[in-house]
Known about the structure:
About 35% of the residues lie in helices and about 25% in strands. The chain has about 350 residues and is an alpha/beta fold. It has a domain at about 110-359. The strands form three sheets. Strands 8, 9, 10, 11, 12, 13, 16, 17, 18, 19 and 20 form an eleven-stranded mixed β-sheet that branches. A seven-stranded mixed β-sheet has the order 3-1-2-4-7-6-5, with helices on one face. Strands 14-15 form a two-stranded antiparallel ribbon. Helix 1 crosses helix 5 (about 220-230). The radius of gyration is 20 Å and the shape is globular. The protein starts with a strand and ends with a strand. The relative contact order is 0.14.
Amino acid sequence: MNFFYDVHSLLTLSSDVALPELAAFAKPAGDHRANIRVRVGEWGARPRSAGDDRLSYDEMLGRFGFAIDIALGGTIEIHASHLLRSSPHVLYTNVVEPVLRWTFVRKGWALVHGACFASGNDAYLITAQTDTGKTTTVLTLLRRYPQLAFLADDLCLVRDDGSVLDFPKPMTISHHTLRAVNPNVLTARERAALVVQSRVHSRSGRRLAQMLSRTGLPMATINAVVQRVVPPPKFAIGRLLPAAKTSHGARLRGLFLIQRGTSESTHDLDLETAMEKLYANCEDAFGFPPYEALESRLRHHDGCDWRERERAITRAAFAGQSATLLESSRFEWWQRIATAIERSSERPRQATVAVASAR
Length: 359
């Protein structure tokens, strides 16, 4: 294996190809014992798997198509077809990350869909449906309030005692995201390419692809080819905000759920409603093929329902917290989040869940 990653000493992963989303956890290659091994090569040389501890997904296009074979056990073996060598973002997002999700649950951690930043030792989570505005919001907060520290943009790790660990994947930005940073952090070529990348990897593009996946087309293969030709615009936090502080961990203090709305009002939400919205956003983030084909086997491996365990972890992390719905017709969620944080810091230490909605 040429590349090795150690995620907070919770699990280790080795891979034939570099996985840019895990770059923050990269360690020197060597004689390491990996919990997950990723191998990429000629699919025809790999026998089809069978049995309760193995699962496969093959779009039957040979070396030109998307195919994976996963062997579950003490060490999880992922074998991917040759196509995925040139589409590492697809290999990670659509294959490795779902495996990580359920492996973390076994270790007592939930991989939660949300951006996360810290104010001192207090962690605040911002969750939303994909492409709603988490990235722009967290970048704006970090730029305007230098005392805040970045933990994650897309996913973070949460434990039932409220502990949060960073998961700093490169940030997928859009043309509009540049309003939150100095555009000159990107080269002229990168800014020009971003116009096309933003359209291809937009929310509407994702929804079109999900719709087409129901037609029987080999969408996992199409997705891999598209992302090979037009890679997603991903940049590390240090590239977008060179002066931004970072944090490896903190303790949950609040949750902001941002979504599109039409009014300017505030409503209290019960914890159950807030958690259901959080769960829905998490499922939305994992919904692209071949996830549906893999999810049931990964989720129910060893006869357990690991999703129930995942939800129990998340609920316990927010136990006893209040929930607030903030509706707005504007996109400047950062202003209301900043105000909520300031008010929260003035109260006795008790985590607050805030849910923001805007159009």
